[in-house]
Specification:
Elements: H1 2-11, E1 20-24, H2 29-40, E2 44-49, H3 52-62, E3 66-69, H4 75-84, E4 89-94, H5 110-131, E5 135-146, H6 158-163, H7 165-176, E6 180-186, H8 192-195, H9 201-214, H10 223-235, E7 243-246, H11 250-253
Parallel strand pairs: 1-2, 1-4, 2-3, 4-5, 5-6, 6-7
Helix pairs in contact: 2-10, 4-5
């Protein structure tokens, strides 16, 4: 039974064959793992990032068709990238890190509050505006965000910023149809970016140990877990306007 199943799996046609996947923020973490998995499913991949050296290394790892260096929060840079990108493309994953404000809200200026809540939205709007004309019907624009189960004074407006994304995703899905729009909201994912928020490696290890002990899945979520969901959402053309939490069951025990 095991051998037969393996033979069928090995013989199946790659599910993204002939398609092009663009990963905004594809030089590390979730973006890089998604590019790797999409490439394994037969797609061409285009990856972008802010760091030229890291981007070049990532491109070699996944045999990327091309790369581009720019900040995803830079609207002119986003427009220039898509203007120069050959059409058609099929899927766009936005995994670029968006800087967000932290700290007590009442200590923030109105401008900082507005940026903290809206920066991811404005970033996505600019990417969608420029990507959509080159996307095939049935392709998907994939957004990424986070989940916040517990609150404290230092969290500031982070929770509000995350909470704005599901209704925004649904509305954008109607505007971009027949291009699909979906959102992946992750809990703690063991990436270099996530661990950079901790004071030191000891604090990181303590968090990993806590998650292994409390999460229903009994382990820490990694970037490959999120990449698997991202590629599934590219393949399944019946899904749009949806939000998927991937947190290892943290919402059940938080």
């Amino acid at each position: 039974m095991t051998t037969a199943t393996a033979n069928v799996s090995a013989a199946r046609e790659p599910r993204l064959l002939g398609q092009t996947v663009v990963v905004i923020g594809g030089s590390a973490g979730i973006g890089l793992e998604t590019a790797r998995l999409a490439r394994g499913e037969g797609s061409e991949v285009v990856i972008t990032g802010r760091n030229p050296e890291r981007l070049e290394q990532a491109a070699r790892e996944v045999s990327a068709r091309s790369t581009a260096v720019f900040d995803a929060d830079d609207a002119p840079g986003v427009k220039r990238f898509f203007d120069e990108l050959p059409a058609p493309i099929d899927h766009v994953l936005i995994s670029a890190y968006t800087r967000r404000s932290s700290g007590p809200m009442l200590q923030s200026t109105p401008e900082e509050v507005g940026q903290g809540i809206g920066r991811r939205v404005t970033q996505v709007v600019e990417i969608a505006r420029n990507a959509a004309p080159k996307m095939r019907p049935g392709g998907t624009l994939l957004l990424t965000g986070g989940t916040q189960r517990q609150f404290d004074r230092q969290a500031g407006i982070t929770g509000a910023a995350f909470a704005a994304l599901p209704p925004f995703t649904a509305a954008l899905a109607l505007e971009l149809a027949p291009v699909r729009v979906n959102l992946i909201q992750a809990g703690f994912v063991d990436t270099a970016l996530a661990t950079s928020y901790f004071a030191d490696e000891e604090a990181v290890e303590a968090r990993r140990a806590e998650l292994r002990a409390t999460l229903p899945i009994g382990r820490v979520v990694g970037p490959a877990d999120v990449a698997a969901l991202a590629v599934h959402l590219m393949i399944n053309t019946a899904i749009t306007g949806a939000t998927y939490d991937i947190d290892g069951g943290q919402h059940l025990v938080a």
